[in-house]
Amino acid sequence: MSATRLAAVMVCTLVAAACGDEAAETVTSPETVTFSTAQFSNVIGPGGRRFYSFTLETSGPVTVTLASVTSADTGAPLTIPLRVGVGRPQGTECPPATVVTVPAALQSQFTHLAGDGIYCIDVADPGTVTTPVRFAVRFTHP
């Protein structure tokens, strides 16, 4: 760097430093959020439903995967879709705020953005269950 250029940079730096008594704004990085993975499974029959409650200490995304649907009698995998949702428990019910009807898969099927508090994962027969089925749901949350 030439002497003239270096002098210009130093002058600009000194002028910028002397231009105010205002406190500089401090930018902090966001807290690191730790995600937990949970799973629950159960059996539903035609017209049935089950839900599982959990508590969020921190706001964030709840990612849900209907991991498997199998025959309750034989354990054979089934391709029928089930209704899966996330909501807040109300007594003995779990009215979902976000809901999808999906077959089992090994990837996330939806994400629900949630605040802190008590939530529930609801699994129900959307009209496709003719005999009892066992399901497994995997979900991650902050």
Describe the structure.
With 142 residues, this protein is mainly beta. It has one domain (36-141): Jelly Rolls (Sandwich), CATH 2.60.120. 11% of the residues lie in helices and 45% in strands. The chain has one helix and eight strands, in the order H-E-E-E-E-E-E-E-E. It has a four-stranded antiparallel β-sheet with strand order 1-8-3-6, with no helix packed on it. A four-stranded antiparallel β-sheet has the order 2-7-4-5, with no helix packed on it. The longest helix is centred in the first third of the chain and has 16 residues, at 3-18. It is globular, with a radius of gyration of 26 Å. The two termini are 50 Å apart. The relative contact order is 0.31.
Kindly list the characteristics that best describe this protein:
mainly beta; Jelly Rolls; four-stranded antiparallel sheet; globular
Summarize the structure.
The chain is mainly β and 142 residues long.
Tell how many strands the DSSP assignment holds.
Answer: 8
Radius of gyration: 26 Å
What's the CATH topology name? Jelly Rolls
Overall structural domain count: 1
- Overall 3D geometry? globular
Strand line-up of the largest beta sheet: 1-8-3-6
Average pLDDT:
85
Helical residues, percent: 10-25%
**Low-pLDDT segments:** 2-29
Please state the structural category. mainly beta
Distance between the termini: 50 Å
CATH architecture: Sandwich
- Which percent band covers the strand fraction? over 45%
Summarize the helix and strand pattern as letters: HEEEEEEEE
Number of helices: 1
